[in-house]
Amino acid sequence: MFCCIYAIDKDNSDYQALVAFASRFSPLVEETGGDSVVLDLEGTELLNGPFTDFPGRITRLAEREGMAVRAAVAANPDAAFHAAHGLPESVFIEPGKEAEYLGDLPVENISHLLADITVERLGEIVGTLNSWGISTFGPLAALPTTGISERLGPEGVRIQQLAKGKTRRSIIVKSTGAVFSLSERLEHPVSSRETLLLVLAGYLEKLTAYLKAHHLAAAGFELETRLADGSTYARKIQFPSPIKEYRTLKKILELEIEGFSPSSPVTWVRLELNPGKTRMIQSGLFTPDTPEPEKTELVLARIGKIVGQGKIGSPEVENSHRPDPVRIKRFDTGSVFRKNRHMDQSPSARKQPATRKLRPPLAVMVWMGENRPIRVQTTDSGIRKGVSGKVLVSAGPWLTSGEWWSKGKWEREEWDLQLSDGTICRVYHDLQSNRWYLDAIYD
Question: Is 0.70 topped by the overall pTM?
């Protein structure tokens, strides 16, 4: 749960006093603009009491200290921000009911910072929404997301998610009350990687102990060095799950600088650990144990050194209508394995045909007759040279297109075909390049 504290009287309020006030209730505080802060309340129930009573308690405590504030608690920081700024009084928003509480807020209240767009662009989108008769969060949230994406692009989709109160992000901690960083001009310049690691290991041990004293862990680290010849070497790493063990952090740091061969002696170093919440895990009685995130992160670091950091991770579907838009993201080693209990194991489900996608799609030759495919044949370089024959049954075409507003514009015409050689497949005609491709085979 997250709480946004909004200073109502901007002119007479001391923002740093507001940040200090908020830091008494949580070590993780985001400075959101010049009039509000957002707190991460997870794990603070024993200190602050029930979440349902927290907004009213914050308001009363601030009033005693001469500050006029309004507070809102919600399951995500953006919903709490808009509720604190737009609703007339402090409120606790039950998870899943964000849209009900935010529904009457004017669309002008959407923060351009949270939408990650400029004020001018937000004004254009708000003007477009007003021309459609959309003036509040509720009707905006009710619009079909597909239509929003086609007419307003990704920016419009982000704005609609803000109106629904369904965004997901972590707060950016700008003020933790402590800086976990050490920097020093070396008295004796370092000429080898091994000696540099010994110096950094001493810094890392002190910073790790400092983090533990604040009940925090390392969510990542930043390393910066300066060499005698004026060149620099820097590394920045973020961990999927915060790590608090010194030995694990040291090993990851060692792997990160393994390829560093100083061209001249190192004269200055800086090492900073980014703070994060310590991991709290309570395993279920009937779920299998999962690898510790620390050990998994070490394995990933070792593999990354072999294949490259950008080539290791898990596939993630992009927010696009383009067919099969996939990118690689870092593994979320902090997630808990859960068996899918809803998998349909009935005999009828097992008899359904499987679709085997070809990545990349295979170039094919297609003969047309009466505006329909009549024959398909793969090229000699194909991985399935046997896919060739007359078209016995065809279904289509299905026309899809998108991203007309950018250079990545695409258009395709898809067909499902049954061929005389027994193959059932999907082919598509790329209208931009005027080429045909075999996209998938039904097994």
Answer: no
